[in-house]
Amino acid sequence: MNVVNLYSFVEICISMELKDIVSVTGMPGLHKIVGQNKTGLILESLTDGKKFSTNPRQRVSILSDISMFEEDGEVRLAQVFKNIKALEEAGTTIPDGKAETDEARDFMSKALPNYDRERVYPSDMKKLFAWYHVLSDKLDFATLDQEESEESTEEEKAAAPAKATKTSDKPKAAAKVKTPTKTASGVKSKTSTPRKMGS
Questions:
Q1: Is residue 151 pLDDT above 60, yes or no?
Q2: Which residues, at least 6 apart from 130, have a Cβ–Cβ distance to it below 8 Å?
Q3: N or C: which end of the chain has fewer CB within 10 A?
Q4: Hey, is 190 helix, strand or coil?
Q5: Are 78 and 130 contained in the same domain?
Q6: Is residue 29 located within the same domain as residue 47?
Q7: What pLDDT score was predicted for residue 7?
């Protein structure tokens, strides 16, 4: 790799954000969104740099939309990554995707002490660790809070018109209670809310 290509690579890595990175069901690793075509997205593997297109049957999850379950709510993946980064900088060894279950749970208790023990499985933890190792030298962790703040602002702006709309004076029928759907792995999935990583 010559000097020019090296600088280009560093620039790409620094500018990468969670909203640009996806996980594709049935495919290992993480991928960066580099374009779009008629059938889906054009992705580039963060592992080997190979590019490919998705199809409508594949489930694509954007990392900025993923959250993890806590006992009293949920936390965005960005914050979990920052917690892991802080532990690494303090000298703690980060498990990899092949960690033993007890090791994974022990580390998870440090990275996210209040994580939901019933809905966050060891397989989720190992996937989290594997993702972190892939992204550790590609993300600017100092800007993750800024990404979260910008996304929250956009969500608040989108919700504002709905709150300002006047309700009808006509009596309404009792609202039906609809429970969130769950996949076989326990991941709560809604089209209008972030995907929950806690399967």
A1: no
A2: 96, 97
A3: N
A4: coil
A5: yes
A6: yes
A7: 40
Whether residue 105 sits in one domain with residue 52: no
> 73 forms bridges with which residues in the sheet?
70
Give the DSSP H/E element, type plus range, for residue 23: strand 21-24
Residue-range definition of the domain harbouring residue 29: 9-62
pTM over 0.90: no
Amino acid present at 84: I
CATH code at position 43: 2.30.30
pLDDT at 121: 97
Please state, in angstroms and rounded to a whole number, the distance separating the CA atoms of residues 185 and 169: 43
Cα Rg, the chain, nearest whole Å? 19
Are 112 and 88 members of one domain? yes
Kindly provide the b/e burial profile for residues 114-152, where b requires at least 16 CB atoms within 10 angstroms of the residue's own CB: ebbeebbbeebbbebbbbbebbeebbebeebeebbeebe
* Residue pLDDT, tens place only, 166-191: 444 544 444 443 433 333 333 343 33
Whose tokens are 């054009």? That residue is: 42
- Domain check: are 58 and 70 in the same one? no
Same-domain pairing of 91 and 54: no
At position 166, the amino acid (one-letter code) is K
Tell me: do 57 and 91 sit in the same domain.
Answer: no
